[in-house]
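Could someone model zinc ion with this protein?
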Amino acid sequence: MKKDSRKNDIANEAINALFMLAGETKSINDERSKRYVTIAEKIATRMDITLDRSIKRSYCKKCKTLYGADTQVRLSNKILVIKCANCGSLKRIPY
Ligand SMILES: [Zn+2]
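Reply:
Sure, complex below.
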């Protein structure tokens, strides 16, 4: 099956825009910020797009909160551990 790259481009653009909006609204309206992240995730799922590594690491998958200055980052045994300041869930990234 031929991949529709133009459609993917548009979807990617929308996802990037949504994450930018989410970042901008985070300090003003947390709920709206989370909604932007949720919508971006939905687009990615529907379009079968893998989110950018940088995007994937920028938010909590559990509560959709973008990581910020209050996020705890730890290094242990070759694993980067990010703790969500909102729900406390941990994300482990091997490096
Ligand atoms: Zn969280």
